[in-house]
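worker-03 picked up job from queue 'complexes'. Input manifest follows; six sequence lines, order preserved.
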Amino acid sequence: MTAQHGTAPGTRRRSEASRRAILTAAFELVGEVGYAKLSIEGIAARAGVGKQTIYRWWPSKGAVLFDAFLMLSEGEDDSAALPDTGDLEADLKTVLRATVAELNDPRYDEPMRALTTEILHDPALAAAYAERLDRPMKELKKQRLRSAQRAGQLSRDLDLDVAVEMLWGPLLNRWLQRGGPLTPEYADSVVETALDGLRPR
Amino acid sequence: MTAQHGTAPGTRRRSEASRRAILTAAFELVGEVGYAKLSIEGIAARAGVGKQTIYRWWPSKGAVLFDAFLMLSEGEDDSAALPDTGDLEADLKTVLRATVAELNDPRYDEPMRALTTEILHDPALAAAYAERLDRPMKELKKQRLRSAQRAGQLSRDLDLDVAVEMLWGPLLNRWLQRGGPLTPEYADSVVETALDGLRPR
Amino acid sequence: MTAQHGTAPGTRRRSEASRRAILTAAFELVGEVGYAKLSIEGIAARAGVGKQTIYRWWPSKGAVLFDAFLMLSEGEDDSAALPDTGDLEADLKTVLRATVAELNDPRYDEPMRALTTEILHDPALAAAYAERLDRPMKELKKQRLRSAQRAGQLSRDLDLDVAVEMLWGPLLNRWLQRGGPLTPEYADSVVETALDGLRPR
Amino acid sequence: MTAQHGTAPGTRRRSEASRRAILTAAFELVGEVGYAKLSIEGIAARAGVGKQTIYRWWPSKGAVLFDAFLMLSEGEDDSAALPDTGDLEADLKTVLRATVAELNDPRYDEPMRALTTEILHDPALAAAYAERLDRPMKELKKQRLRSAQRAGQLSRDLDLDVAVEMLWGPLLNRWLQRGGPLTPEYADSVVETALDGLRPR
DNA sequence: GTATAAACGAGACGGTACGTCTTGTCTTTTC
DNA sequence: GAAAAGACAAGACGTACCGTCTCGTTTATAC
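worker-03 finished. Artifact:
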């Protein structure tokens, strides 16, 4: 039950080598020349592939980029849970600091901005992103929060979606809009403020 | 005290009519055809203006779009403070619901996505945005929070920047990434959760 | 030994239809709007062709025009010799009168002026013109003179190149510079004067 | 009797300095960048003059070029007759060799080609050229021939216009179309052939 | 083992838009 | 009131890519 398609008479014989070359080229190129100058033509040339091979299998430039990200994330261990030492605040700071580090990593900055741009203007891609890349990550985050909730460290009636977005939203926004320095200290500050709330205790 | 520049010998005589026509055309067009199909050529044609007149005064498509937003926002009353009834939670809900309504308004959706895209890839534009459009708004928000802080409704040592970002960040992120329904109820939920914090009280 | 190219892997598949459409459009347009207003853009539009298809195959506007002339001249019978009734003077008058008629024909006037302009400023084009269009014609003319020479009607030591240029040069010059009326009588006069020479006999 | 316009009531205060600067700039520029890249804009910049000053006084780029030639030729002695040693053939060879030398002079090549181009497409300019530049020269040539005619060295009933064109036409044509080497020997050959005629004597 | 049919690399095609350049007009300021 | 300066609407320049469409050439079953 591994085959993606039952091998029907008019068989598909897609070239795996071309697929990988295209995705790799797309990811590298967007990092080198930036989103604005990324072109199908350029990807095809870099991958040593005919343009038609791209148009045959992907509906848009964004879809190629998206698959390039998927390919990368498949290398990672999906089942890897977030750290759970019992100390929620420390664990969250660890994870958010890691997020900050990744957002500041120049290897991922341009590609992620490019993908974000595509998501911004393509609802279908946005849905795919939410489903394939964002949801698994969010699920891990919610899992950690659920564990804390069971331990009585979080409000019983807390909406975990809102909680996750309140923790990661500020970071993403600073990154996207360059609305301020994106430092580990900022991550810590967000965690503390979110946990305690704005009101005095 | 009217002259913008001291009228030097070979002075500049920029056409205000062309400037307004270009900005108006840019804003309208991005709403009609979307960001991807927005072109300098199209803006010039719609504005009844030569392309060179655009290239002469703006360095990029994003800069035009940015100025179009600036022109709109200049119509608004900048000194208008956020509502302050004394009931912080209610006031915040009112404001965030208004934000939600604006983000959902189709007249602003495409233009704002377009501007966001440009900001995403152009640090200079991002700085201009932060300075000219975002900061004044953020100042108003912080002012309201400061008032609440003085009234003892917010922690004394609260970082107001973090607070503002924790309130508005989740909304903006849902909007940008279409990561879930952007409803008034969501706005309320964000306000409540932010004020009380994730921890049980 | 029939194949023009050994059909290599990435072979060329130039569109003959586009080529003809471009040349026809170029010839028609130069007659309609004149040389000064002839543009690649206009040719492409008239021919229903992308600009790149012109730039791909021709190095300059002049080269297109030149090929347009070539296409026309290929329709004509190249082997057609000049008339040879035995009466050299009469034959030359016939031919030069025909030349005068053609130069005065409004259908060819503008296109030929345009081509001449390009030749005037482009040595490479001038060489191509001399080789492909001018030389075959000149050869026919020299052939007729050679026949007369054999019949003792022309000096034995006559330089036929000089002779041809002395017969046709004055006509072309009047046409180019509009230096006087270009009439059949003028053609006759040139023939008579050239044959007899300026000196009294 | 030097003024071109009588000083009419609404007096003209045309700047002679600008006029000369424009004509000089035009002549120099056409020699430097060639006809194709000669622009009004460039002439104005080189001359340190506003574009309007050119448009105000000349109807076309060709007219500027034409006046530039006029200015040069005014420096020359118009009354200078062609050499008349009594030996017509030798005198003609001298003059035609001088013509050849001038046509081969790179300082005059480009400017003359440029002017020729303009004449080619502008009948009004052609008429001005014929009247102001060509006719005076032609008159000198005809004068020399008339002298020879009186001396019995040329046919009594010779059409001097045709004669002049038969002598100079071949040279100009070779120059224009680069239809062969333009050497002093060629000039000699033309003179000899024209004088003796094509027919055997 | 061939047939055969798809996917492939290559790249020409009709187009759109780019950013630059020049045209000829218009306007402002200086002399 | 002519001149220098230069903004303006218009539009062509030559280039880069778009997405579609043949071309021959692999290449991997299916016969």
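worker-03 released lock.
Chain B touches chain A through 51 residues (CB under 8 Å).
Residues 123-150 of chain B form the longest helix (28 residues).
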